[in-house]
From TrEMBL:
<dbReference type="GO" id="GO:0006282">
    <property type="term" value="P:regulation of DNA repair"/>
</dbReference>
<dbReference type="InterPro" id="IPR053925">
    <property type="entry name" value="RecX_HTH_3rd"/>
</dbReference>
<feature type="domain" description="RecX third three-helical">
    <location>
        <begin position="145"/>
        <end position="190"/>
    </location>
</feature>
<feature type="domain" description="RecX second three-helical">
    <location>
        <begin position="101"/>
        <end position="139"/>
    </location>
</feature>
<comment type="similarity">
    <text>Belongs to the RecX family.</text>
</comment>
<dbReference type="InterPro" id="IPR003783">
    <property type="entry name" value="Regulatory_RecX"/>
</dbReference>
<comment type="function">
    <text>Modulates RecA activity.</text>
</comment>
<dbReference type="Pfam" id="PF21981">
    <property type="entry name" value="RecX_HTH3"/>
</dbReference>
<keyword id="KW-0963">Cytoplasm</keyword>
<dbReference type="GO" id="GO:0005737">
    <property type="term" value="C:cytoplasm"/>
</dbReference>
<dbReference type="Pfam" id="PF02631">
    <property type="entry name" value="RecX_HTH2"/>
</dbReference>
<protein>
    <recommendedName>
        <fullName>Regulatory protein RecX</fullName>
    </recommendedName>
</protein>
<dbReference type="InterPro" id="IPR053924">
    <property type="entry name" value="RecX_HTH_2nd"/>
</dbReference>
<dbReference type="InterPro" id="IPR036388">
    <property type="entry name" value="WH-like_DNA-bd_sf"/>
</dbReference>
């Protein structure tokens, strides 16, 4: 293959001389590049910014994939929007029309965390991370028998035996505390005997 088919991108000799004589200067001279005599400049990406019906369509597309809290939805949409004010108005409208619901998200979080063996403190923390007020599911949290939940988790991890050894008891307490259970529920769980109601 002949060399003439490929444009010469860098003149290595002039680059060597330039960098060899002056280490403080790392810019190439205009004749050091020979690619149509044009310097390629990196342009910052332009934010086209969605507005109107395109922004609304994007919001619906986001909500069809999964439930988002109001705060999460605003954060997700505003990265592609031209105007934050428009995003906030759109999310408020979607919330009023029940396309977006913090109540639904709170119930999903409660169900998911409970299934994973988390206690009320961890559930409240998960809601706080999603910027949802835990008051939305206060009644549901009160209806759950947390001592029973803690007991089932204790059985799964440590078995039915009620520990007499202080170190092993402390280990069970730490485990259940980490899972987000209150001390009252923990003490009932670790002291409950098998077949005891």
């Amino acid at each position: 293959m002949s060399q003439s088919k490929f444009p010469k991108l860098l003149d290595y000799n002039s680059l060597k001389q330039e960098l060899g004589t002056s280490h403080s200067e790392y810019t190439l001279s205009p004749d050091a590049t020979d690619y149509n005599n044009a310097a390629i400049e990196a342009e910052p990406p332009q934010n086209t910014g969605l507005t109107g019906s395109r922004l609304r369509s994007y919001a619906f597309a986001v909500l069809t994939r999964k439930e988002f809290s109001k705060a999460e939805l605003i954060e997700k949409i505003e990265t592609y929007a031209a105007n934050r004010e428009e995003v906030i108005n759109l999310v408020n409208e979607l919330s009023e029309q029940n396309y977006q619901s913090d109540q639904r998200v709170a119930e999903i979080v409660l169900s998911s965390q409970k299934r994973k063996g988390k206690g009320p403190q961890r559930i409240k923390l998960a809601l706080k991370n999603k910027k949802i007020n835990s008051d939305l599911i206060q009644d549901e949290l009160k209806e759950i028998d947390w001592a029973e939940q803690a007991y089932q988790l204790k059985i799964k991890k440590f078995g039915y035996a009620v520990e007499k050894d202080a170190k092993l008891k402390a280990k069970q307490i730490r485990f259940l505390q980490y899972r987000g259970f209150d001390m009252d529920a923990i003490m009932k769980a670790i002291n409950q005997k098998e077949f005891e109601d």
